[in-house]
Amino acid sequence: MTTPTEPPVPPGRPAPTRPGRKLGPVADNVGSVHRAWLDPMRTAYQASGLTLNELSSRVRFAKSKISELLRGVGLYPRWEIVYRLADELGMPNWPLYRLWSQAALETHKSSDWINGCTDRTTLTATHTNPPLEHRAFRELVENDYTLYAQVFLDDDQRDNAIDATFNRLWLSWNEALADHDTRRYAWNVLRETVMARAPHRDGRPELGNAAFDTVILQNLTDPAAYANELTETLELFTAISRLPDRQLDVIVLRRLCGFSHGAASALLGTSLATIRSDERHATRFLDSVIPPPRTEGTTP
């Protein structure tokens, strides 16, 4: 993987101050897919300098309704209000619509309900292209992101997670460019999106499905050898899942995806020294919990 060219960092500006009560936090029961579009909308609102009263008068929705939407309180919002808020806040509506509709399905809204929210021409999301820099970045990293995601997710979930990652990045692209390292910002979005969909046990992501895709297992035909190798592989993957987040990512990229140190460094937006240090610490932990295989003639 080629190290991406560092994008220009626009000068930072303090967020405008506004009178009145501050926007409350997102409700605890809001899911990660819902937050994928809600968090960028909250950021756009906070950067706009508008008060809820001003926003209410512009979009012609009650202030209480807008406040509920921006906190994820109450019923899942219809597309009309989301669309009008996005239009007023200058957000691209196509990636927003894709994330909104995906979250609607996950809140058990039917396709008929979704289509019923968007059957008016004036409220239809316009299929537009993302910024050129976003498209170039996606072309550069999408295959690598897919390799990482498929360690934790099945094919359908993997594709949905990758699509959601780049839609979310599109919504927050200005923030990504303004970050100290756009690659690290984007990786954090990918990781959060994948981990929200991955099965977990005891608070840690499971890698069990990836064990069945290892090259060694695919090449074994003897049932006894396969069972023995599978047991050892599952033990290893369980140990990998217990690693701290950063070490986990490095080991997944290095051992399961086959990335070089340089490629992992470029993908994570992390120095080579950090990658090597994380790998050493992770390897030391894995060696401490996975005993080396016994050779014939040795006693337990």
* Approximate shape: elongated
Alpha-carbon Rg, integer: 23 Å
Structure annotation, total helices: 16
Helix and strand composition category: mainly alpha
Strand order of the largest sheet: 1-2
- The CATH architecture of the largest domain can be named as Orthogonal Bundle
- In percent terms, what proportion of residues is strand? under 5%
Element order: H for helix, E for strand: HHHHHHHHHHEEHHHHHH
- Identify low-pLDDT runs: 2-12, 214-222, 295-300
Largest sheet: 2 strands, antiparallel
Tally of separate domains: 3
Number of strands: 2
Percentage of residues assigned to helices? 55-70%
CATH class of the largest domain: Mainly Alpha
Topology (elements, then pairings):
Blueprint: H1 32-48, H2 52-59, H3 63-71, H4 79-89, H5 93-106, H6 111-117, H7 132-149, H8 155-171, H9 173-178, H10 182-197, E1 200-201, E2 204-205, H11 208-211, H12 215-219, H13 223-241, H14 245-256, H15 261-268, H16 272-289
Antiparallel strand pairs: 1-2
Helix pairs in contact: 1-5, 1-8, 4-5, 5-8, 7-8, 8-10, 14-16, 15-16
